[in-house]
Amino acid sequence: MGADSMPESADPQQKEEEEEERPALPPAPRFTKSDLNLLQLIKAGKEGVFYHARLTRGTCKGHSTFTCKISVRLKHVEAEVSIMRKLVHHKNILQLLDWNTSEEPYILIMEYVGYGTLRTFLQTNRDHLSADPELQSLLTIASYHIALAMQHLRSKMIIHCDLALRNIMVNKFPWEVKVAEFGLARDLTSMTSRHSTRWRNPRRVPLRWYPPEYFKNNYYSFMGDVWAFGIVLWEMQTFGTLPYPNLETSEEVVYHICLGHKNTNPEGCRPEMLHIMRDCWEEPYTLRPSFTNIVCMLEDILENDSPSILLCFRI
Q: What is the domain partition of the chain in residue ranges?
């Protein structure tokens, strides 16, 4: 979760959404926290803590090392497991291997990623990447793979609700980037509305990634994820800079977004990516492109890049 967050407001005029009906989860845990050897911290947030880890004995479904998430929020973890089980077999979504929701702390075991979050990767390698003449093509490839993941979420009727650079993992840049962290995600197949959600329970949300319709009408749809994708593009172009860097308080951020102010154009950003970024921030939200549209736009950009980049793109 981002540094700026605040409790979500409920709109008494809106019809309360039905609670998600979560599929029954297999009860038998095959490990506990004492069975884990935590190797390296990847990131820590309000939804949980991520580590590189291994089991003290044996492997997890053939994986000797893996990513694990440790949390104390049972309902969130159960919902996250249910959602991740719907998102199997996609190369750009961090895959769930196993879980333990029978005792605290609750644990998810996911596939291994070598470089942690994309935000940390870009910040750590800024000097090297800045000197690469193919930087814009590399960032476009990574953006394309993130868009593919979000297109898959849309096809499964899942809203991520927390798409941000810190929630994208890197195994090999830019070809193996994976959307992760589904602690705030919503599965709309089990809700009254199949296109958007209004929550009645207070939640803390990442304000700097949220769209104006959320603050004005307590409304978040698939187009809210599209807005957040535009913020992710901006984060990538600025090597992990916090969005709206000149605004310090939650109140300032919300006021700024509701007035229609946007992040400034990143220095050196290719015009085609800037165009997609701005399209993602269109108002009203009905004017924003779908993730299928975004995938097509990114494919068109990559088709026009240099042959060496195109070869890597097709691999």
A: 20-110, 118-314
